[in-house]
Design a protein that fits this description.
Elements lengths: L2 H22 L21 H14 L3 H9 L8 H5 L15 H7 L6 H15 L9 H14 L6 H10 L11 H13 L5 H13 L9 H10 L7 H14 L5 H16 L8 H22 L4
Length: about 300
């Protein structure tokens, strides 16, 4: 099929689908773009779209229309589903969501691709530091997965995702200001990519993962809950998490580590609710309390 014919076919199919969906929704159920929920791209179009979207946006004079159709529900960004289809942004071999494809997809039509790649590779290098055993790309990937499950509840999923990419970018277990340093890195790295107000919100989202007190906004609550989702994991996975944290603190004497870790977990357990959002409470609250109680007992030599 000639390129122009492919473009026309893609536009027609997508516009038809969008038009049908808009007619099927009452006015009150649509968002400001005219669509409700994630963007609609026909499944038959997704394989071609995932391979051709970048080139299509450059080569086709009608590209702006398809660009809007593909990401309408998420503002001026291409959604992960539109770019990569139902396989989302995971590495097929590892299940890792913290991939370059996902990072670039987050930015949609931004033309500063090489600069964005440089930011990604800096983050990737940081999350691969040898002293990390839990605060790695695996943890970041888990946070992104949790965000994907709660995306419809976010005011700005774009800003939350940016914050999650950076929230542990600076991590030294001997420091107490890792989140502040990570927020500073985000300010430096993202300057020029997003406006000042958005950047301020991203840094506030990063600081919410300090878990020093109740977050101020609904998006900050989602970011904090995604960061703590591991607490509600199955017992075997939670045990691996505790072992990984201990490895990161291998320099700490055993007695001191146990006492400090027990105090931290006890503060979390003493909260009226560990998770701030209904989405995460429903999924993880009960199991998180069981995991924390068991871990505290073991740390105090009572288990």
């Amino acid at each position: 099929m000639a390129w122009s014919a492919f473009c026309s076919s893609l536009i027609s199919t997508a516009e038809c689908c969008v038009s049908k969906r808009m007619k099927s929704k009452p006015e009150s159920a649509r968002n400001s773009t005219g669509l409700e929920g994630p963007p609609v791209v026909p499944m038959a179009v997704l394989p071609a779209l995932s391979m051709s979207l970048t080139a299509f946006m450059v080569r086709s004079p009608r590209a702006p229309r398809v660009y809007i159709i593909c990401h309408a529900a998420w503002g001026n960004r291409i959604s992960n589903r539109a770019v990569m289809g139902s396989a989302d942004m995971r590495d097929k071999n590892t299940g890792n969501r913290a991939t370059l494809v996902r990072w670039l997809g987050l930015w949609g039509g931004n033309t500063r691709r090489e600069a964005l790649k440089a930011v990604f590779h800096d983050l990737e290098k940081r999350y691969h530091e040898p002293h990390r055993h839990y605060h790695t790309l695996r943890h970041l990937s888990r946070c992104l997965e949790e965000l994907d499950g709660a995306r419809s509840q976010a005011d700005s999923p774009f800003e939350i995702e940016l914050a999650l990419w950076f929230h542990d970018a600076v991590y030294d277990p001997r420091r107490s200001d890792n989140e502040e340093a990570s927020a500073g890195l985000a300010e430096e790295s993202l300057n020029g990519f997003i406006d000042g107000e958005s950047l301020s919100r991203v840094t506030a989202l990063i600081l919410a993962t300090r878990h020093a007190g109740p977050p101020d906004t609904s998006d900050e609550r989602l970011a904090a809950d995604a960061d703590l989702a591991i607490l509600g994991s199955p017992p075997d996975e939670y045990r691996e998490y505790e072992e990984a944290i201990r490895q990161e603190y291998s320099w700490a004497p055993e007695d001191g580590y146990r006492a400090g870790r027990a105090r931290l977990l006890s503060r979390l357990l003493a909260r009226p609710q560990i998770y701030y959002t209904g989405h995460f409470r429903q999924r993880y609250e009960e199991r998180a309390r069981a995991n924390l109680s068991r871990s505290i007992s073991l740390l105090r030599g009572q288990g």
